[in-house]
Amino acid sequence: GEVCNMINKKYNEFLPSMQSAEDLVSQVDGLSSNIDLLKAGIENEVQRDLNVAVADFTELKQQLERDTLVLSILKKLQEFDTAIKEYNTALLEKKYVAAAQQLEKARNSLKMLESRKGFELKILKALGTELTVQTQNMLYHLGEEWQTLAVWKLPPSKESSSLESAMHSELHLRTVPSKEEEIAGPPVASVLQAFAVLGELHAKLKIFGQLLLKYILKPLISYPSLQPFTEEQSDVFILRFKSTEPNLDHSSPMEVFDKIKLIFEVLHKYLLNVPLEQPVEDKKECRVTLAELLGDMIWEELSDCLIQNCLVNSIPTNSSKLEQYIEVIKSTEEFEKALKNMQFLKGDTTDLLKYARNVNSHFANKKCQDVIVAARNLMTSEIHNTVKITPDSGVALPRLPDPGAGDHLKMQTTSKLLHNDMVNLENKTKLSQYTFSLPTCRISSSVEKLMELAYQTLLEATASTDQCCIQLFYCVRNIFQLFYDVVPTYHKENLQKLPQLAAIHHNNCMYIAHHLLTLGHQFRYRLTNILCDGAATFVDLVPGFRRLGMECFLAQMRVQKGEILERLSSARNFSNMDDEENYCAANKAIRQVLHQLKRLGKVWQDVLPVNVYCKAMGTLLNTALSEIVTRIAALEDISAEDADRLYSLCRTMVEEGPQVFTPLPEDDKNKKYQEEVPVYVQKWMTFKELMIILQANLQEIVDQWADGKGPLAAEFSAAEVKSLIRALFQNTERRAAALAKIK
C-alpha cells in the first residue's frame, strides 16, 4: 500500500543499494549465512593456528560486530514496517484494540533503534514523524467514537450552577453497536481499552469525571428537589432530571445516597464495567476496571461534597434526636458497600463513613458552633433595645424532657431555682430574700437572650454524653469570654459617646456577673461528676464582669465631669458680677450645667438602678457645686452688688439642682429622692454655708463660726473664712475684731 511506497521511497533515498522491502529480506538472509561462515572461519583458524596475527583477528572481530549491528537494525526497521501495515488494516476494520497494540509495537521498535549509539540514521526522524501522525490519527478516530458513546447535552455555560441549569443537563449513553460494527465486540470496551493501550485513558476519564461531578452528582446533593430519571430507547440510554416539590431544605442522607447509587448503577451497566486490558489467561483476578479508575478520580471530591452538603446538615441539634441517627450510619454503610460491589470504591471505611460514625463529636461541635454564632450575633446587635428586669425576674427556659430520673431541678425555670435557693438560705442564715437579687433596671434584650442561651446550652449539656457535656460546658464559658472581648471593642464609640448606652452596658455586665454567681450551682449535680476538679463554676468570671461594667460607666462619668468644668470655666471666675457682661456669662454657664444634668437625669431615668442613679447624679451635681465654691472662695474683692448677684446664681443651683434627680418615670415618686439630695451631694452643706456668708453681716458670720464649733466651721477652714471676710467687708475696726475671732 501507500505506506509501503513511502517507506520504500525513504529506503531509496538513504540506502540506494536496497531496492525494495523484498530485496531487504533476501539480503538479510544472505548476510545471515555470511556471518555464519565468518564465525566458523574465526573458530577454525584459531583452532588450527594460534599464532595467527592478532591484527587479523581484531579486524575480523570488528567486522563481525558491525555486521551484527546492521542486521539487528534492519530487523527492527522491518518490524516497524510490519506493525504500521497491520495497524492500518486493523483501524479500517475498527479493531481499535488491535490497532492500538500495533502502534505500541511500532513505538517499541523505534525506541530500540534510537537507543543504538554511534548509529544515527537520518531515517529515524522520518519514522518518528510517521508514528506521531498515525497515533494522532488513531486518537482522533477514538475521540470521535467516544463522543458518540457518551453524549453530554449541557446548558449554555453562562448559567454556571443552579437548579435551572441542572434541569437542562442530560447524559446519553449508546447501548447497542450499530450493525456493521457488531464484529468488534462491545464498542465501549474496545474504544476505552484502545485509549488505555495508548495511555490516553486517564485524560479522557478525568474530563468525564469532572462533568459528572459538576452536572450530575453535585446538583443531586445540593438540590433536594432534583430527581434523576432514566429513559431507555432502542440504542441509547438517557439520564436526565425532573424537579419535585422538596419537603425540606435539606434532603436526608438516605435520599441522597439512593439518587447517587442510581447514577453509579447506570454508569456501571452501560459504560464502566470494562476491564482495562485484554484478558490474560492465567490472571483472571487482578484486572482493574474503569469503574475503579473513575472512582479514584472523583471519590474524594464526591465524599467531601456529601459530608459538607448532606451529612453536616443531618447532624442533629439536640440530644434527643441522636438515637435516630443510627439510620444514617446504616445507610452510609450500605451506600459504601454498593459502590464497592460496583468497584467504584476499594479499601475500607472511607472518610464519609468515619464522619457519620463520629456523630457524637460532630453533634457537640455543631451545637457549640451554633451557640457561639448565636451568641456573637446577640453581642453585635443594638444595645439600646432594652427590657426591664426586677428582683424576681429569672431566666425563662423551655421545659426539656428530663434525661435522668431523680434530678428534678431541670424541669423548673431558673427563676424558681434561684428562688428556692434563696428561701433555703433565708431559713438558715436569715439573709434577706433579695441578697442574690438584682435591683430593678434596664438591660439589653440581647443580653437577656444571651443568658437564656447559656442556660439552655447547660441544660442540653446535662442531658448529653460525657464528652459532649464537657464540650458544651466549656462552650458556655466561651460565650462569656467572648462577650468580655467583643462587646467593649465592637461598641466602643457608642459607649464613649452615648451616656445612656454606657449605663445599659453597665447594667448588662452587672446582670451577667449576678447570674454567673449561681450559674454553675444549678447544674452542679451533673457537671461536677464529669469535670473532675469540680470546676463546674463560673464564679471566677464574676469580678471581671463587675470591673468591665464599672470601668465603662466611670469613663462616661469622667466625660460628663469634664463637660461640667468646661462650661463653668466660661463664667469669668465669678468675679465683678456687677459688670453686666460678666454676670450674663456666669448665668449662662450655670444654666448650661443645669441643662446638661437635666438631660442626663432623663437618659438615665428608668435605666440605672435607683441607687446607682442617685450616686451618679449626686457626684456630678457635687462637681458643679464644688467648683463654684472654690471659684467664689478665691475672689479677693466682692462688692455688695457682686454678693447679691452671686447669691442669686447660687440660689438657682440650690433650687433647680435637686430637680434633675428623676430616677423614675412617675414624677410623684421622685420627690423622695429630691429631698434626699444632701445625702448624695457631698458639698451641699458647704454650698449652703457659702450662700449664708454672701448675705450675712460680720456678727452673723462670727455666730455661724461659733469658736470653730458652728456649722460654718464644719464646712470651711479658718483661712477660707478669713479670706471671704476680707473680700466682702472693708478694712474697719469691726472687721479686724471679727477676723480675730476666727481661728
From TrEMBL:
Q: Where is the Centromere/kinetochore protein zw10 N-terminal domain?
A: 2-84
The record's annotation in Pfam families points to: ZW10_C, ZW10_C2, Zw10_middle, Zw10_N
Cite the ZW10 C-terminal helical domain residue spans from the record: 588-742
Q: Which GO terms describe its cellular component?
A: endoplasmic reticulum membrane; nucleus; RZZ complex; spindle
Name a biological process GO annotation.
endoplasmic reticulum to Golgi vesicle-mediated transport
Give the record's membrane topology. Peripheral membrane protein
Q: Which InterPro entries match?
A: Zw10/DSL1_C_sf, ZW10_C, ZW10_C_2, Zw10_middle, Zw10_N
Q: Which UniProt keywords apply?
A: Acetylation, Cell cycle, Cell division, Centromere, Chromosome, Coiled coil, Cytoplasm, Cytoskeleton, Endoplasmic reticulum, ER-Golgi transport, Kinetochore, Membrane, Mitosis, Phosphoprotein, Protein transport, Transport
Record family assignment: Belongs to the ZW10 family.
Q: What is this protein called?
A: Centromere/kinetochore protein zw10 homolog
Identify the species of origin. Grus americana
Query: What taxonomic ancestry is recorded?
Result: Eukaryota, Metazoa, Chordata, Craniata, Vertebrata
- Gene responsible for this protein: Zw10
